[in-house]
Description:
InterPro entries: HTH_MarR-typ, MarR/SlyA-like, WH-like_DNA-bd_sf, WH_DNA-bd_sf. The two termini are 31 Å apart. It contains six helices and three strands; from the N terminus they run ααβααββαα. Strands 1-3-2 form a three-stranded antiparallel sheet. It is mainly α. The chain has one domain (5-145): Winged helix-like DNA-binding domain superfamily/Winged helix DNA-binding domain (Arc Repressor Mutant, subunit A, Orthogonal Bundle), CATH 1.10.10.10.
Amino acid sequence: MTRSEQDLFSEAAITSFKLNGQFLAIAEELARPAGITAAWWQVLGAVLREPLPVAGIARAMGITRQSVQRIADLLVDKGLAEYRPNPAHRRAKLVAVTDAGYEAVRRIDPQHAEVSAKLAAELGLEQFAQIVESLTRLSAALEAIEVR
């Protein structure tokens, strides 16, 4: 039996929803000992390499600007992030990680590495890399067709 395009789309969506739930549950477990939530970790992770405006974080993470703003405000209140001036846009401040934010993320690293190794062992490194590549291509394709 061949599956139709619509069936494939539905299966991909349902599997993605399940994966999202699984990843969020794991992320919550990993983040908890560091005193942060999965959502906080997600926003901190988006700005580890360079500060970004809230809208840039939202685009990179595929979540709403309002959600990111709320989390960024909490992170700033907790001293895990700070707002910096944005030379490209006076009103859209940049979100940057503080030393305390880097330390929180570093506390996650050992368990993160352990879970990553277990998953790589379960799948095999080559297949794991192929899955990541396929998910990245799927995300890009969805972005390209931009259904509104």
